[in-house]
Design a protein that fits this description.
Structural class of chain A: mainly beta
Structural class of chain B: alpha+beta
Radius of gyration of chain B: 21 Å
Largest interface: A-B, 23 and 31 residues
Helix content of chain A: under 10%
Strand content of chain B: 15-25%
Helix content of chain B: 10-25%
Strand content of chain A: 25-35%
Order of helices and strands of chain B: HHEEEEEEEEHH
Shape of chain A: globular
Number of helices of chain B: 4
Distance between the termini of chain B: 74 Å
Oligomer: heterodimer
Number of strands of chain A: 5
Number of strands of chain B: 8
Largest sheet of chain A: 5 strands, mixed
Largest sheet of chain B: 4 strands, antiparallel
Order of helices and strands of chain A: EEEHEE
Number of helices of chain A: 1
Shape of chain B: globular
Strand order of the largest sheet of chain B: 1-2-3-4
Radius of gyration of chain A: 13 Å
Chain lengths: ~90, ~200
Amino acid sequence: MQAAAKDEHGGGNKIDITVIVNGTPTHVEANLNAPLKTVIPKALEQTGNTGQPVENWELRDARGVELPLENKIRDLNFEPGVQLFLNLKAGVGG
Amino acid sequence: VVQVVEPAVSKAKFEAEVEEFRALEAEYRAKGWILLEAKFPEVLLMAVATKVTPPPVIFGALFDFTNYDADPPSLNLVNPFTREPYLAGELPTGLNRGVAAEVPPGMPTPPIQMKMNQPLMQAAQPDEVPFLCLAGVREYHVHPGHSGDSWELHRASGAGKLIRLLEILHRYGVEPLQGYGVELVPKVGLQYGEAPE
């Protein structure tokens, strides 16, 4: 349930992020210099969600704000303990 | 709907769905989801718009996990106090999503992309109980218009999971709310004084 920047503790440019995939939490180790979108395939793989392509998912913070996937993780200034929510998009309605 | 799947299987999967919600219940409550009842096969939650003051109750969401997950869950928007499903004409929200408006053939393409509202809640008549037109919901998959989009195509992706469906309901039904709308309609008429004798 925590995001901890490991570069402050001798772990290099790594960060542990808790991603809640359709309600299932999983911990993802990500590179702080990588775009945020890199956590999505890891989170999906770790939770066994392999049935839908990455672009069918959306990543939001606890307030429900959709996160910019192309931004570097470092630039998003995640607070320790942050949780991100990864959910399937609505898809085509009607 | 008759339970034809081994009840212990559906019940275990139902309890897992509810447990996933309870594990993050504080976070979901902060977003406005209040769990009212959870007794197999049904879960009833209430959606509140927390960013509006005072926070209004928007709708109830009644899930039925009978035969889950051989079948997707049923989902109805209901009055959270009576559990009565809203008719289409009574819906507090149509769960509108903004989609790009199609330009009729022969018309010039406008300089700005026009958007239109597409309601995710669908019904043929205002006095029908509407259904959520979304893969992962039982009413969607049993609709004859969606016979080409089988539940089996979505089952493994988590499309019918409780949390996923709550996120969709919140995104389109609660999150866009900005406040109370007040409509004042002045009425102008002739006003006479005391009638002459």
